[in-house]
Design goal:
With 152 residues, the protein is mainly α. The protein has one domain. Helices cover 52% and strands 4% of the residues. The protein contains 7 helices and 2 strands, in the order ααββααααα. A two-stranded antiparallel ribbon has the order 1-2. The longest helix has 19 residues. It starts with a helix and ends with a helix.
Length: 152
């Protein structure tokens, strides 16, 4: 099974620095979250084992945060080397579908979008806006919500 870090590297390898595109930590978190959500819809199983929590700025994977936290709001450079052959065909299809649907948006837009979606809202529960929350966004709620979105 691939990891959230593999998916992150895939997205980071897609950044075209010459054209002015950048990948911030906020955007990377949301893209990886959407990959997990849509893979649950398309394939009925998670793409990777790492979980997302309902943080104040939207879904966040603590392990991914730890790896890239030093970049803060600055662009993250692409990996020196990346081999996409670690992904299956269906995994690539999911990642590319997410890139096509969400890749043009910045991190703040994606944060705002996730704040309107049930999985993050439900996982936050009574937690006040802006407060720390480590509640896990469960795969079941992700699959149910994005399946409804797909069928709407």
């Amino acid at each position: 099974m691939v990891t959230v870090f593999d998916v992150a590297d895939y997205f980071l390898s897609r950044v075209e620095l010459d054209s002015g595109s950048v990948m911030t930590h906020l955007k990377l978190q949301k893209l990886c979250y959407y990959v997990q959500a849509w893979h649950l819809v398309f394939e009925d199983n998670p793409m990777f084992e790492e979980k997302f929590q309902a943080w104040a700025h939207g879904p966040a994977c603590p392990e991914l945060f730890s790896k890239f936290k030093d970049y803060r709001w600055n662009p993250i450079p692409p990996p020196d080397e990346f081999d996409s052959s670690i992904f299956s065909g269906t995994e690539i299809e999911t990642i590319e579908a997410v890139w096509e649907a969400y890749g043009q948006f910045d991190g703040k837009y994606l944060e705002d979008l996730t704040h309107q979606e049930d999985p993050w809202i439900m996982a936050r529960g009574d937690c006040p806006p802006g407060e720390k929350c480590e509640n896990v966004i469960c795969w079941k709620s992700m699959k149910e919500y994005y399946t409804r979105l797909q069928n709407a």
